[in-house]
Design a protein that fits this description.
With 285 residues, the chain is an alpha+beta fold. The protein is built from 6 helices and 17 strands.
């Protein structure tokens, strides 16, 4: 006896939500809806597939989404899918690197956890270039900020910025936009208001941070500083690895900022309550 392959995977869904399932699995993921056998139609649910990939959604009374157990789907064009899902308002999140793969997680329309992976070729990634944002970038900037930050408004140290109207830096690779940083210069200080890298582990964030330091230096600033939240452990790791130092913890600042921007979630990354602002800086020569 030998098990040779997986025929299909099945995820649960609530009753009567077949249209929502099709919008996600067919409309966003590009899987083709497959007709169920006539004797199974009365059970509800729906089937999707393409090639050897078969995903079945079965109705489960008292449905609860799978938050740990998950399906991992191999993808060609992972960065494109990441951007497509983010643009559609799907919460996408990265995880620790897995050797030989790029990957991210997302929840389907019912909250079931999904993993998407793409094999990484041995060839070096395309180079990342950074340029100043211009008028043709403004609509794209606003869309990206709404997806990443809940709105174009970013609150730091009690001040609300409309980041879509701030000076910006756009990262590009292979002819497409792959990241954005916005900043605000006041006197001899430059605040990095937002930074978003759309392609993981390709040097996008590092390129944007380096360009922001150069802009701040050319503006005559003596320091570049930023605010992140107490739950954002990935940001703390990223910035400290690149020379920024933690200089202040502003306790309760996010709770106060939530009065200005209600979209700020109370529960953040890794299930950590979001309450405090963390201030990091790097001195400029």
């Amino acid at each position: 006896m030998e098990i040779t392959a997986i025929d299909h995977v099945q995820l649960a869904m609530p009753p009567g939500e077949e249209r929502k399932a099709a919008k996600f699995y067919q409309g966003l993921l590009g899987l083709r809806e497959v007709a169920k056998p006539p004797n199974l139609v009365s059970r509800g649910g729906c089937w999707f597939g393409t090639g050897a990939v078969k995903v079945h959604l079965g109705v489960e009374p008292g449905f609860r989404p799978a938050k740990k157990a998950h399906v991992a789907l191999l993808v060609q064009g992972l960065a494109e899918l990441y951007g497509k899902l983010a643009q559609a308002g799907v919460a996408v999140r990265r995880d620790e690197p897995l050797e030989g793969y790029d990957r991210f997680y997302a929840d389907d329309v019912f909250g079931n956890r999904l993993e998407f992976l793409e094999k990484v070729e041995a060839s070096p990634p395309p180079p990342v270039s950074v340029r100043a944002a211009g008028p043709p970038d403004r609509a794209w900037m606003a869309d990206l900020l709404r997806q990443s930050w809940g709105s174009t408004q970013v609150v730091s140290r009690g001040r609300a910025h409309d980041a879509s109207q701030l000076p910006g830096l756009v990262a590009e690779a292979s002819g497409g936009r792959v990241g954005l940083a916005t900043y605000c210069v006041q006197g001899d200080q430059c605040e990095l208001v937002s930074l978003d890298a759309l392609v993981p582990r390709r040097g996008v964030g590092a390129a944007l941070l380096s360009a922001a330091k150069e802009v701040a230096f050319m503006e005559g600033c003596r320091r570049l500083w930023l605010i992140t939240t107490n739950d954002n452990l990935d940001a703390l790791r990223f910035y400290q690895r690149r020379g920024l130092r933690l200089v202040a913890v502003h306790r309760g600042a996010v709770d106060r900022a939530r009065e200005m921007k209600p979209q700020i979630p109370e529960l953040g990354l890794f299930g950590i309550g979001v309450h405090d602002e963390l201030e990091l800086e790097v001195a400029l020569p």
